[in-house]
Give the backbone structure.
Amino acid sequence: MSIRENRNMLWKLVGVIALMGVLVAVSVPLYDLFCRVTGFGGTPLQADANQSEVVKDTINVRFDASLERNMPWDFNPAENLVTVNLGESKTMNYIAHNPTDQTITGSATFNVFPFTTGEYFVKLQCFCFLEQELAPGESKEMPVVFYVDPEILNDPETKNLESITLSYTFHKVKDKSST
């Protein structure tokens, strides 16, 4: 191979590596967008308003709360289980408490289980991904407004399902005392 051919091959390889780097950089936001749009992987859909019709069929919705390992808050659902009519908008509260002597900021992530229900569990209002700051000793109620789309009855994988679990995990974002 000549020097010119080697140089051309080198530039092609550099281009391929650069393209791969760009694809890696955009894959996480694109996957997140895909999950939010489709409900894939247990990601609940989000909407501005409930367009569903309320039907007589009901489903149990369980609520779960957990904390990242270094998050010192207390975090729990106000209720562990509610029964809702499909299509009915429901408000549920989670309660966070900061028992420390420091102001702590956290942010919650969420999912639903079974994962196949993500496209039918629709959140109208949520505290997830928003930074929540709690002063020392402060407690805060955080509402979630949701409904379960009656279309869940038309899916062979979910039509006989009796319950869905909504899980939130709070992560520590920053500690005001260390800034």
